[in-house]
Design a protein that fits this description.
The mean pLDDT is about 90. The protein has a two-stranded antiparallel ribbon with strand order 1-2. It has eleven helices and two strands; from the N terminus they run ααααββααααααα. Helix 2 packs across helix 8 and helix 3 packs antiparallel against helix 4. The chain is mostly helical. It has one domain: ABC transporter involved in vitamin B12 uptake, BtuC. The protein starts with a helix and ends in a 12-residue tail after the last helix.
């Protein structure tokens, strides 16, 4: 019989990783108006940088997280500045930009593969664990959930209380009006790409620490992250919070159903795919109708 308390806790862990990874994707998608599939490789890059610093250089995760955020953020910034921004200025359509992101992803993926190899690697850091009846909790899982909650609070404050947050919301909802109001939308987009890539790095490290790391780490979870962005409403941060935990719960319940039916749990990715298709058919705007633009 399924242990539903553990399933709910696992859903919170899954949803937290998806939320951290989806924030940058949904905001850059809302501002740049195209789906960046290279976001998967930014997740992977952050994980590998974290592994390099924490495991190979022995500096620990306390150093790995901020450095991975900054370095991956710079890569995300450069990706937009050197590839996507020039294409957009030359009149590239959403299809052109999307294909360019896929091509860029291949370049990043195989570059990482040539550096770190294609065999799975593992973080060896030991995390304290606690058994509370049927519920098992580890320090890593607590930090994943804590980080997602902290991110939600910080992003809410930035989007509502700060000038840059208001500029992000204005540029996402009506870029022409934002420009007319004096907002430098190009700077807003570049900053968002930097922060979004940095957050992808954090999600990548958490994902790798909880499972494994290899050049396909980001690609393994990019579909659920896109499902979060679309279900939450493109460019809508608040919708993404709810969507991340809906996807996390659906995926973990799907694992229980797959096991009960005798199928491989590798089919869990189909849960996010189904939610993605249903959302696009039934309610393309996702949960955005219930929230203010974020």
């Amino acid at each position: 019989m399924a242990d539903w308390l553990q399933i709910l806790f696992n859903s919170a862990i899954t949803g937290s990783i998806y939320l951290i990874g989806a924030v940058g994707l949904t905001l850059t998608y809302g501002l740049s108006k195209f789906p960046n599939f290279a976001h998967a490789e930014l997740l992977t890059l952050g994980a590998f940088v974290g592994y390099l610093l924490s495991e190979q250089l022995g500096l620990g995760l306390g150093i790995a997280f901020p450095v991975a955020f900054l370095l991956t953020g710079v890569v995300g910034f450069l990706c937009y500045r050197s590839v996507f921004q020039p294409l957009a200025r030359r009149g590239a359509t959403i299809i052109h930009l999307m294909v360019a992101s896929i091509g860029l992803g291949f370049v990043l993926r195989y570059s990482m593969g040539s550096v770190w190899g294609w065999k799975p690697l593992y973080f060896v850091a030991k995390w304290p664990s606690l058994d509370m009846g049927p519920l098992r909790i580890t320090g890593l899982w607590v930090w994943i959930i804590f980080s997602a909650v902290g991110l939600s609070v910080i992003m809410h404050f930035i989007l509502i209380k700060t000038k840059i947050g208001k500029a992000i919301r204005a540029s996402s909802s009506n870029p022409e009006l934002a420009k007319a109001s004096g907002v430098n939308t190009d700077s807003v987009i570049l900053l968002t790409w930097f922060v979004g890539a940095g957050l992808a790095a954090i999600a990548g490290i958490f994902r790798a620490a909880n499972t494994q790391i290899w050049p396909m780490t980001g690609w393994d979870i990019i579909l659920p992250i896109f499902a979060v962005a679309i279900l939450g409403g493109i460019g809508n941060f608040y919708g993404s919070i709810v969507a991340a935990f809906i996807i996390g719960l659906a995926e973990n319940c799907g694992v229980v159903a797959l096991m009960a039916l005798g199928f491989s749990t590798s089919y869990r990715i189909a849960v996010a795919f189904l939610i993605l298709i249903i959302t696009l058919i039934v309610k393309p705007q996702g949960l955005a109708m219930f929230f203010r633009r974020g």
